What we know:
By secondary structure, the chain is of the alpha/beta class. 48% of the residues lie in helices and 14% in strands. It has helices spanning 2-16, 19-22, 41-56, 77-82, 102-105, 115-123, 127-136, 175-183, 196-202, 213-216, 246-250, 254-288, 298-318, 320-343, 351-355; strands at 28-34, 61-66, 88-91, 140-147, 154-156, 170-172, 187-189, 207-208, 227-230, 239-245, 292-295. The strands form two sheets. It has a six-stranded mixed β-sheet with strand order 7-6-8-5-9-11, with helices on one face. A five-stranded mixed β-sheet has the order 2-1-3-10-4. Helix 3 (41-56) packs antiparallel against helix 12, helix 8 (175-183) packs across helix 13 (298-318) and helix 13 (298-318) packs antiparallel against helix 14 (320-343). The radius of gyration is 22 Å and the shape is globular. The termini are far apart.
Amino acid sequence: MKKIFVLMMTVVLMSAFSNSSFAGQKKYHWKMIETWSTGLHWHETALHFAKVVKELTKGQMSIKVFPAGAIVPAFQVFDAVRNGVAQMGYDWPGYWKGKNQAFVAFASVPFGMDDIEYSIWLRAGDGMKLARELYGKFGLVPLMGGNSGQEMGFFTKKPITDISQLKGMKVRTVGWAADILTNAGVSVSPLPGSQIYLALSRGVIDSAEFSTPYITYPMGFQEICKNVMVPGWHQPSVQLMFDVNKRAYDSLSNHLKIVLKIASQETQLWDLTRSEYNNAKYILKYEKDGVKFNKLSAASLIKLRKVTKKYLDGLRKKNPFLNKVLASQDKFIKEYAVWKTIRSGVSDYPYKEYIAGRRFQ
């Protein structure tokens, strides 16, 4: 009886996405605008999402992806989707801190959650519920868009292991990290990614970070700077989001809304696994190019952690919704920490390294 029931349920689920489910129904041709150019990994992630949606709907819904500048400049994506210029956008939520500081909490928090933890908090915790509440204030519906992992750290010409060594240097970073480093006594220059290489080569800046190993390697910073200050405390993960115009979203059937949700969750996993697989490969490329990775001292990390907390506490007092989001993250982090501690000690390092004592991440 159980086998018959399972077979029946399988047939029902398969038929839900069969050709007949979409036969004769209204077709949708959407535009998706993004904050990145065609040369970046994230453009491929957008194309992947569109492909999954088209396949799941058997062509009833197609989404054409337009890179930054094709329809609107990169940092006009948010307002363009709100105003119906395109039905969807794709971006890093931290870009919209000027709209509400809470958007940054859905992108990456210094000393915060990693890619797996963000995925858990968004999917199984309160994350997406809170995201819908925030995006809803702007006439948008959010969907998970991938997480590219921990950012590398800061490229430097000389080895740096203590935050005090940055004194007198000009460092490129953006977002909350820029404010935190400024509060720690570091001179910061928030240059766009396209200007970093030239600024480093000309000595306009002395240090810079951009993104993960996989994404940053083609930018060539290692040709100028043979050292990287790690870990990437400033951005332990790169959470991305699709933004959907709410009027366009509301025009869809419940079935198509479910398709978008399923495609976004599949894309979250696709981007995460693809990114981490390649992050590991590109770190080896950096090492082959002679790049050295220099760990910040425990004292420096503690100092940065304290400065970060003070900074975020100040933002939380001014922004009730940001406080609500970070409180949810704090609760998850506290609960998850117990399990992380209990399960620790069996990290899958190579045999000889494990025997020699490397057992913890």
